[in-house]
Amino acid sequence: MRAAGFDRFGGPEVLRIFEVDEPHPSAGQLRIAVRAAGVNPVDSKIRRGLMGGDLPRRTGVEAAGVVDELGEGVRGVSIGDRVFGPTVGGAAAERALLTHWALIPASLDFAGAAGLPVAVETATRMLELAAVREGETVVVNGASGAVGLSTVQLARARGARVIGTAGPANQELVRSFGAEPTTYGEGLAERVRKLAGGPVDACLDAAGGGALPELVALAGGPERVVTIADYEGAQRTGARFTGGSGEARAWHALAEVAAMIDQGRFRLPVAHAFPLERIADAHALSESGHPGGKIVLTLG
Question: What is the Cα–Cα distance from 38 to 211, expressed in whole angstroms?
Fold first, then answer.
């Protein structure tokens, strides 16, 4: 089968399409015929060698497709079902293995489903670590990206009020997803306080950019400040960094969000779709810092 990967670390140019053996599921896993795979910032970090690992290796961490093989003990899903989830061993391929999955909502296509797992799990994990509750005011730094938009919607579903930071061009986008927008950068804390008109209960950082000191000040301390984008800032401020290897993941959120999509309460648009053969272009766009939304690869 065809699978995208690399046999040396480097920029997008090291990516190529390999012919590899088809995988088969172990107990508790299922296999899908991949129809779409998401592209995420972590893919570039892995490809550049920033997270270690052996060579050659495959790429991609989330996919959507049609179940075509079941491992021992798998229940509640059948051959031919449409599912999405995080992959084991590479998503950008004609076949992929999943240990965690959810059924794709009837209203959603494969590309839309492939872009959900990482953003939805990350957003849910941040909200759970910050213990966001109904009636609270939450700041989402970097609210216009895939993780940010997911966090805004899931915080709103918990009954929280959300203030979201984004660039000038994305203010209305953030507003359309349920947050009160403001720009990031110098004077952030003052702008947020003016909008909030009262205390800020928690701050979630999906963008980095040196905002953690102001976010900690807004929340009255680091206890309920969570970042996925600034490890060093978390070390300095006492905020919680999440995303390390071995950390528990909130994959239960996949089925919850699937239900929300069917109810019209969650959406995560795909900004760009590339065929598998153009994976280098997809990675380059992701690394540009201005992808404009979720990027996916399409197969078949």
Answer: 28
**In a domain? residue 256:** no
User: Quick one: 102 and 158 in the same domain?
Assistant: no
One domain for residues 104 and 125: no
> Tens of pLDDT along 253-283?
999 999 999 999 999 999 999 999 999 999 9
Q: Are residues 108 and 68 in the same domain?
A: yes
Q: Are 113 and 36 in contact (CB under 8 A)?
A: yes
- Burial 260-297, CB ≥16 within 10 A → b, else e: bbeeeebebebebbbebeebbebbebbbeeebebbbbb
Average pLDDT, the chain: 96
pLDDT above 80: residue 289 = no
CATH number at residue 205: 3.40.50.720
Residue 248 lies in a domain: no
With residue 275 as reference, give the H or E element that holds it: strand 270-275
Does residue 182 form part of some domain?
Answer: yes
List, in order, residues 6 or more apart from 107 with CB less than 8 Å away.
261, 262
Burial of 163 (0-12, 13-18, 19+ CB in 10 A): buried
In a domain, 279, yes or no: yes
Host domain of residue 186: 120-241
Confidence of residue 291 (pLDDT cuts 50, 70, 90): confident
Identify the band that residue 137 occupies on the pLDDT scale cut at 50, 70 and 90.
very high
% pLDDT > 90, the chain: 94
